[in-house]
Amino acid sequence: MVMRLLWEPLPELWPAAPKRPAGLRGLIAWVRDTAAALSQRDDIERRMRRAATQAIVREAYQQTLAEQDSEHRRPAEFADVWKTRLAALLSRETVEVSGWSQIAIADLDTDLGWSLYAAASRARSEAIARATATPSRPGRVADSQTLFYEFSIAAGDEHPLGHVRYEICELCSVGLLNKISFSLDWQFCGLGTVALRQMEIRHPGLTWYTSGQYSHAKGFYERYRQDSDSPWTEKQHPCRHF
Fold first, then answer.
1. CATH 3.40.630.30 residue ranges in the chain?
2. What would the mean pLDDT of 142-158 be, rounded to a whole number?
């Protein structure tokens, strides 16, 4: 996944291995297995240069991510802006990155930087495209007459991209979305829509409510209601059983 490619140590053979498996899972497995097989006699200076190159690519990613709250960029636009920021950083003589002293761009392998950007950007796109909902895990809140559920949005066996928690009252045919959470890395990627549609499919015929904490996401829910087959209400008080 993009997080591993940007934060974990790169294998010495990256990116010149004769064959790399296709697909996100194959790519991540290759990175993990190759890194584990590295000789401890690797040249320290070379590894530092590679780590510095990785830090530059990561810095461009984090700069782009920091704007997501205000810019709401979709995946393709996010990748383009990330690429532009990386080009701007690599065009400088030196770059300051948190946790590093000044990095001299002339000392870096810029081809490695672009290869890493391409792989991480592809991994992000593939994770979004492959994201699906895990089975609902039922539970019950103490002394409650409602049923509690939760599930995740995940891409294969990797760490979940987001989580959903909700309750339903079967007596009154009412559902309450308690919490839907995605880290900023996975917001504005269409995954919230995937989550809500799965929730509706699993519990058809309910009228859905959201908690008051979603007032800041009012625009999203208004747009979602227009295409939803289930009724969603702006009211904040579901039935008396909640």
1. 133-227
2. 86
